[in-house]
Protein 1
Amino acid sequence: MSTYGHLDTDAHDVDPPGPDTRSARPAPASRTVLLRRATAPVALTAVMFLLAFTLGSTTLVTMQEVLAFAVFATATNLLLGQAGLVSFGQAVFFGIGSYTVALGWLHWQLPFWATFVLAPFVGALVAIPIGLVALRARKLYFALSTLAFSELAYQLAESRYNFTKGANGVFGPFVPTALTQPRTGYLFLLAVTVVSLLLLWKVNHSPFGLVLRAIRENRERVQALGVNVYLHQVAAFVISGAFCALAGAMFVIYSQSGYPELLDWTTSGWPVFMAVIGGMGTFLGPALGALIYQFGHDQLVLYFSDWQLVLGAVLLVIVMFWPDGLMGALARLGGVIRRWWKGRR
Amino acid sequence: MDLSAFVTQSIGALSTASSLFIVAAGLTLVFGALRLINIAHGSFYMYGALAATTVVGWFPDSGFWIALIVGPLVALVMGVGVEMGVLRRLYGREHLTQLLATFALLLIFADLALRFWGKNVRSINPPKVVNGNFGLVGARVPAYDMVIIAAAIVVGGGLWLLLTHTTLGWKIRAVVDDPEVLVCSGVNIRMLYTGVFGLGALLAGLAGVVIAPQQAVGPGMDAQIIVAAFIVAVIGGLGSITGAAIGSLIIGIAETLGANLAPSWASTFIYLLMIVVLAVRPWGLLGTPER
Amino acid sequence: MKPIQMLAAVASAALLASVSACGSGGSSSTGGSAGGAAGGSTGGSVNIGVSTSLTGSIASFSQSGMQGIQLAVSDLNAGGGILGKKVKVVSADDNLTPATGASNMRSMITNDHVVAMFGPVASSIASAEEQLAAQYKVPIFFHMANDSSLMTKTFTPYAFQIVPNTVMEPRAVADYLAQKIKKGKPITVGTFAPDYSFGHDTVSGFLKALDDLHVNYKVVKQEFPPLAATNIGSYLSALVAAKPDYVFNAQYGGDLDAFTKQAESYGFFKHTTVIGMYGYLDMKALGSQSPAGAIGFDRAPFWAIKNPQMATFVKNYKAKYGDYPSTWATLGYAAVQQWAWGTKKAGSFDGTKLTKVLPGTTPPTILGKLQIRACDHQTETPEYVGTISKTGNSKYNGVHLFDDPMFKAPFDQIALTCAQVKALQP
């Protein structure tokens, strides 16, 4: 990525420096390749499906959280990993997703299913003006501007208590009873997660996704080719916002509430942490990060009073020594093993 | 509004602006030279304030004046440690990496502070000489507000002198534009980075000490100040000390106006202001667009 | 993504899921040993849960409330436990977010088999946990969160509130004020409260109480600075400029300390009587800067409640933690006493049985004999209001306390009646 002056002499590439980045991408769409490609996601989904019948109910409830965050982090990573846009404001949409369900019930007695479907559209609608304004700024200023939107949304939710119930948040029996059961809730969220990730995967691998990556690598050159960089980035921001809002609506099944902290800039930090821990150069890295972050956090909170210390230390170590995250490291390990295997043969 | 009310509120706005300026000046100075946003700046501020409460606990009479030296020194040592131990290895990386590293440090320092100082809110008194108020056209003006305003003027003036009238200042300004030339002319860039980062931390520590007699000192003040400092620095334009001064004045005045006209909108108003500024000038009032 | 990465992902996700499944299986089995013992009747121990805010701006209160609970539990165990079982405290930090509080509580109930919950501070977290209490049929005792809607709009039989609520507190203060002011004398009033529902509720409760008492007042300034704001200078100078006779302040903890110090520097206390939640911890933090002549209110000041049990509690607390107990510690201790007394009476750790037995009774606690009102499970705790003394109390670390005589606002005078409560309950 291009940065400023001397500082980027050894600029870090977001894609993991895996040995075979080129060979895999433009693979011909022959049937065998397609089959081979489908195997892994199908197997992963099957494993996750079976977990519903093997895990205890407490773990399943935590897995509900993980699934919501997996979508949240993957959607955020569309900006982070693909477009190279560091947003500290995705919580705006996450929170709006939750509030769409909660406030829809509170003020208009809308059924859960209606608001759940509505949430991503509300998220997208709000993302349009925010994206148009925030994307006028570049890099750090973009990050800080999204942070300001996050704080603005938080303040609004907290101070407009006639509408939002203020700091207390909205609680109520707005989630259908069936979904409050750990297993059905998990299975429902799993289905939504699989569909969302497939859609996001599609976006990543569409010509649009390619343009985003090209902009990230060399904005000026893409602009010179006549591509409207600004509009492409706004579009990415809106898509990400829609899925973040969907994640927020998913989170409601776990939290059964909507409250201002969901909009706060520290909440915006979560998906970024998750993406970094899991590896933002890979598609499934953020989802893996969500899994690790959530289970790590839950265990630490219960048994450590200093969980922030541990989280901070882990984050620092990853950022300093393992910049492509866990998935990057795994991919590297896979590459090493494969080479070793080939060498033996 | 009568004259005395006007005076009370003007000085209130000025003192708010002054304390914000000292914190934001350090943040923006570091950004100007190193091009990195330091979230752990809030930690340095908190440690400065906490150190002040400890020192005053030891020396109840002269403690504050000793703390004025000790607090910034604590922050300076932390800053130099952070720069040499962590940030130095990350200069070539993206913004995000540096942002997250300093965020991680904020989390770590916050929990360490709990270990050292506990969870209770701590509090110190202003030194006796300035612990009162004086009359000014019918209004009572807190004497300590004058200390804060004076501190801001000293810091602002000092930075201006440093940056425009010394060779060190020339180097700091030059390092952003043309580091190669600096290296060729024999400047130790590493030392310069450490120095600037340390100076930024020192200012945060100083702000912590100065603010301690007015505010409750305790957990959470690190994260709060960092958001406030961001707003000021971003409105003024990151990297510009004058911008930080203007930004802090704008926030001070906006807060006072908000508190008078629409109290329950006041906090929302500040963020709206920041967004409006960024929408019109995405690099802040006095900042330069990023290349 | 390359197939190899996909596979790595599948493998690692499956691995992690199985590890975490084992991990939680393991922890639930250790929890199970304690919980199993609790469920059965083979001696051993029983767990109670405390999920509270151990980080952030209100950590010092929660910490001190937790100490009260821990002391109560160790006193209980020293006396042979309860129904033949030792009591253990399971605690966790809710990080001041409702979802974390709710998730702590769920995990404490399912993994650690806690039989009662204590601890939320913020009313948002309290209302989230109150719903879970009803869902899992585990009683929850509010000794810190005092939102009155917990016992009215969102009432469930599994919730108990020992702390004076947001209706009682401002009403008690208004009563005291009405006593002090000559009837019909016009006064100007300012309010200063954190900008969230607690602040707004308390302020409007206070003004409504003044109306009810026919006080001739005029509001000259209302300020709502953000909760835990770093700098309240602008809000404060606006208040100072309005020169009110009285200021009702609904801040607490660090915010109140900061307000007091800055207001003092304006000489504000000379002409304006400030009314604020000045408890022992605040006065101790303020020391010689305590605002003499201001009006303080406190929910359970240990030094004002005189009975032998309280004296023993204060002595033991001081011996264990090296300081006098805060209101939060005192109320936490008393809440555990209520739970233990009810459990003994019910002869079982079953939550539903407890909710049948406890309401309407008068469990003896260090606060004295106070009834738990049947209609809303609100303990009839009085609120203490007084004028802050000019001199420090030599008996208590030189801390400035309230002057004698102080006003012990009787419950019946300040609380909603059962009829009013019933109308609000679902």
Protein 2
Amino acid sequence: MNALLLDRIHFAFTVTYHYLFPQLTMGLALLMVIMKLIALRSGDERWNQAARFWAKIFAINFLLGVVTGIPMEFQFGTNWSEFARRTGGVIGQPLAMEGVFAFFLESTFLGLFLFGEKRLSKLAHFGAATMVFVGSWISGFFIIVTDAWMQHPVAQRLLPNGTYEVASFWKFMLNPWAWLQYAHNMCGAVVTASFVVAATGAFYLLEKSHQEFGRLFLKTGVIAGLISCVVQIFPTGDFHGRYVARYQPAAIAGMEGLFRSQKGAPVVLIGQPDENAQTIDNPLAVNDVLSFILYGTTHAEVKGLDAFPRDQWPTALPLLYYSYHIMAGLGTWFVLLMLVAAFLLWRGKLYNARWMLWPILLSFPLPYVANTAGWMTAEIGRQPWLVYGLIRTSEGYSPHVSAGNALFTLLGFLGMYSVLSILWIVLVYRFIRTGPAAAAVAIPAEPQPATLTTV
Amino acid sequence: MGFVWFWIVAVMIAAYVVLDGFDLGVGILSPFLARSDNDRRTLIRSIGPVWDGNEVWLLAGGGTLYFAFPLLYASSFSGFYLPLMIVLWLLIMRGASIELRMHIDHNVWRSFFDGLFFVASALLTIFFGAALANVIRGVPLGQDSYFFLPLWTNWRVGANPGILDWYTVIGGVVALVALATHGALWIVLKAPGQLEDRARRAVTALWIALLLITLISLPATIAVRPSALANYRAYPILFVIPALVVATLVGILSFTKQNKPLAAFLSSCLYLVFMLVGAAAGLYPTLLPSSTDPARDITIAGALAGPHSLHVGLIWWSIGLVLALAYFIASYWLFRGKVTADAGYGH
């Protein structure tokens, strides 16, 4: 294995693992604000208890998001130094802004939110929850602006020393790609949180414990889940997909497994791409649909991979194809599941429908898979470019960091994150076992808090 | 513009050292000062609500460095590859140890995280000190402004140095003693009863070590990098900085003796700031000196990002810093005063 491949795996692994945590905390932050708002408006104490319960799970995930996030900012320099040198004048900006505007805000208000319930008024405590939400969503925005520039570089200027700088700050921040991707991504985070909340509710109902909260969580999760799943596909996914088709046609061809350009292009639902023969094996396809989705008419021509020189094909073609299909397939399953669940909820039958509670419980890992697959689609689709059309991936890695050193640290991260995963499972399981009823008495009685995650 | 951003980055690094410094120091001292589980809990509590915010200065500082001096970021982060990765692992372990210790009431679980908290805090401090010493000593920059340093070679500061050599180890020890002192002063300020008394006695012992290691580090620096004095010769007013270092050192001890813990802690903050400012003043306008050929030094002019980015950056950075200061003042005000010995916390 050469250094380039190892550096790619290094970043892919650490960022994929990292994003398991923010996708839950960003979504949960919104749901907690909603719970606090309902409590504030209705005076129903159960919603405060629910918010308190989820705040504990939020805190532990936030901690893991923080500690696994720190390596991300450093890895641009450690493993991708040529990329960092040439583009620091552009993407250094949102990364620095994330620290200055989002992290300070989050770390302060998280402390207030977790410990301040007794010291603050109800309204101020709701305000603290809102600030945690705002901070985490600002953080997400700056990361998406960074990635969007790599996907669709705008507003940059090449300096005589071969590096890039931002020519227009506002054009850079208002990159349309960034806003479409942001909407799609944040909606995906809400899907993850909704499914986790709904699955916890389903678990309590199946278990016949904490049933009052089980119903509360299930209702919250299903309503938020249905809205976010639908918005995930339309308009956010749809608009984002069309934009990708306009600016990264080779990526779309790879995602869809479309080897030949054609009018009335089909959507392949299932099938295995064969890169050498340039065919899809065992295809299950629907004609004309791809043309319609991308261009609004069944006759439109969609460019296949044959329209692009081989050195501009996405490098990991089958993985790109599967990532996209897994994302889209799961997205469809989410809508179906949530539609049926919402119907049962409306008819007042959901809480006793065990046949429905089981799939809701078992589906909680799937949004994590779908979000990961979505990011893989975006980043593998961008290949072979590091910055689309400007810098190739093979030009960006650190020239003096040997493959041996990169492998050493990759193995180190694998080991360390395995341990973190075990700790995470143990602690989240304990929170769910203890249940939300304990949150009724858990407002810290002492005047001083302990740490960020222990109340 | 380069001058402004040099000092912005320096201020952020100094803020990190001063703020995260005391919670690192608490970690270094925890096995020596805490005699019971209650003591250990009090120590964790004294930093519990603020440690994460303190660490944000490292991230914000790193981001600002990346933004303002991309070449320096690219060269130094890839060149210091191994120690940086070790620092990242230690940061992960340390964050986990602070936050996870309290979650399960079991003595083996807690002992494990207590040990981890100490080891990670001490090693991080040593690595940070050694890193700064590496920057002062210089690194073998190539024609392409890159380098790669192994963790150690022959422990000498020659043409083929490692991250660790006799000089950078001194840097690590300076950091260890300085932050242990800093942490002890924080504990005096925040902890009640016997813990406070033990911390006060630790300050006196650590102070002698700090005085000695500071006095060793100054001539060692001049021996390793004689050109560090060039700015001082050109602008003799700069000699005020080492004088202030000595003054703050005296302040730490005399305020502790007079039982003014806040003044003593602030003296320690200023001691750290002046040590860093002294180093920065010696380096300016170089960011990362070459150990082989001064022509290859990475300088402000060579590493500075484009002008438009930096102009815009100055606007948002000023706004962001005012907000950050407001959060910090509010947060430290809210959690002011002694940490109470707790009874029956729930989790």
